[in-house]
Amino acid sequence: MTTAKDLFVIAMDSGQEQAVGQGDLSLALAGAELIDLLGAGGLALEDDVLVPGGAPAPADRLLGEAAARTVRQAPYERVEDWLWRRGRDLAATYQTALEADGELTPKTAGRLSFGARRVEAVDTPARHGAVDRWERREPVLTALASALGIGGEPSDEEPGLDDDAATAVVAAVHDAVMELEAVRQRRNIENAAFANLWRGP
Question: Is this entry keyworded Membrane (predicted)?
Answer without folding.
Answer: yes
